[in-house]
């Protein structure tokens, strides 16, 4: 038993307008340096990564003729020690790890129905895009890989961040016979209608800005009314468009506010020594072009965040990935994120489920199921349920991450552990190692590895005891 398989749900970021959901890391991604081959390759190859395609079932849960349709699901294997992240770059030799990256259905090239155009065209084809199908995909491929490498008794650890972290935790709960354990980083498992956190996403955004620089916080807080004041002037929207160098003239103030909202939310979510909120605030504080030019200060923040451009687009052409994610947020991943009264850096605009349902029905012809995730994965009373039925999960959360309000922040049992870092941001523990990583981050990663090693040690002991019976 020489190999550990690590299913790495490496996430890429796509930003959705706040009318749908704030930025969330979404989908598993094959590393860029993978070489693409449809045939199996010998384990002794010197290539870092090899890509394969698996004939995946369209529908794992019915036995209708259509369910037996297949699509090519892409996955990558690295049989040498990984050099793209903290787990195996630093600990590959110790863990003797084989890495498996599996692309989420409907993302990248893993498209049913032959193409993204067909797969994403309406609810009839998009209906096969959901977390339960994705987990079943992972199970099928991992069992296939274990058979391919004759590694029946090699333990599997699943790792993911954000939505990928949710998938990692859910996979351990639904497929405990396949995954020995899971590391779920920045996974907002409790951010659903049935398990609403006390405070919301924008409470943390507000807190981060206020504690970082109160002057900056006050400038942003006052800017929303100033935008409204200018907008009602004759040609007010044109004035604002020129002020912020918007590529196309604004149709309403929401477009501008949403653009700015995304900048602030992203800054808080990924706040670190590489992307500090403090630097954004410094740009805002120093951005006065003339006396009392509040919006000039705000625009200076835009320039800092987006670079000095001739004009700034408010939206980008939808990608296949963003279309797929929008469907998921309109079907089962319905995060009730809004601006509540305590989110004092923003104008109050609470989340309304009735509006969400109407928008989703208008676009897809079917309403979302906001209670399905909590029913299917059993997280209504998370402490009791996980204590009785769960084990071997690490929930890691940086408390500067706005999604941490929906995370599991306390130990539930000896083997379901919460690691929280007051200075941590979104998924920071599982991103690339950096020479500037602070000591607390190094210690967090070390602790995660120690816990994973303890699971593997216990598994090996159980396996030896079983074999001596």
UniProtKB/TrEMBL annotation:
Q: Which Pfam families match?
A: Peptidase_S28
UniProt entry tagged with the keyword Ligase: no
Note whether Hydrolase occurs among the keywords.
Answer: yes
Renumbered to this chain, the signal peptide range is 1-19
InterPro entries xrefs = AB_hydrolase_fold, Peptidase_S28, Ser_carbopepase_S28_SKS
* Keywords from the UniProt entry: Glycoprotein, Hydrolase, Protease, Signal
**Stated family:** Belongs to the peptidase S28 family.
The name this protein carries in UniProt is Lysosomal Pro-X carboxypeptidase
